[in-house]
Structures are given as C-alpha cells and as structure tokens.
Amino acid sequence: MKETILVVDDNVKNRVVLQRVLTYHGFNVLEAEDGAKGVNMAREYSPSLILMDIQMPVMNGLEAGKLLHADPRTKDIKLLAISSIDKLDDHSLATVFDGYIETPFNILELPKIIIKHLQDSECGCQLGRGDF
C-alpha cells in the first residue's frame, strides 16, 4: 500500500515540485495551500506524514502543527517542517515537528528523509522532536 503524504505550502511552485518528486517515488500526495486547510485535510484523510511550511496565510505551520498534536485523530501523524526561514525557534519546532527540511531542498535526498521518518522517528534529520 502506498503511503500518503500531505504537502501544506502556500507556494504553488513548491507544491508542484514536491508533488512531482513524491509521486515519482511512489507516494500518494495531497495538497493544501494554508495551515487551516492542511489541518482539515489531515483530519479527513489521515496521511502518513505531513510536510508543512511555516509561513503561510490564514494559519501558519506552527499553529497548524499545534492543532494537529492536540487532536487525538491526528496526534500521531509524522510532521516535518519545510521552510526557508533562517532563524527558527528550535524550541517551538521541537514541540511541534518531528524534523525540519530547509528549502531549497535536495530533491534526491528528500525521499530518503521521508522514508526514514516513516520507518523510524530517529532519522537524524536536521531537527527532530526532542532533539534540539
């Protein structure tokens, strides 16, 4: 069975690149353009993993991640921040996200990071929940 990845990003180009790379590597991909829609889609579709941008309109990634962790239906979904922000509060990320992928990302490494997170939460990514 294919794993489903939810990509939550307000940047259409980022979503297209992520969708193409992930689909090529055999994942089902869902897309949302803001945190509020991402939370609703996570609740409806229960993806295996969510790639969440931090800065978005309507609801940012940190707010969306906090809602997902507070909801018993979505609290166990792996959640990776994906952002180009240089200065992120590591403590805030650690309480919400399982890891952090800086953009621009390496499209050859991205599937490996995702597969590792799906197999084991101790993936050695840049940031991991509790590893800050």
Tell me what the structure shows.
The protein is an alpha/beta fold and 132 residues long. The protein has a single domain (4-119), classed as Response regulator (Rossmann fold). 39% of the residues lie in helices and 18% in strands. It has 5 helices and 5 strands. The chain has helices at 12-24, 35-45, 61-70, 90-96, 110-119, and strands at residues 4-8, 28-32, 49-52, 78-83, 99-102. It has a 5-stranded parallel beta sheet with strand order 2-1-3-4-5, sandwiched between helices. Strand 3, helix 3 (61-70) and strand 4 form a beta-alpha-beta unit. Helix 2 runs parallel beside helix 3 (61-70) and helix 3 runs parallel beside helix 4. The longest helix is centred in the N-terminal third of the chain and has 13 residues, at 12-24. The termini are far apart. The model is unreliable at 121-132 (pLDDT under 50).
Q: Could you list some keywords that capture this structure?
A:
132 residues, alpha/beta, Rossmann fold, 18% strand, globular, disordered C terminus
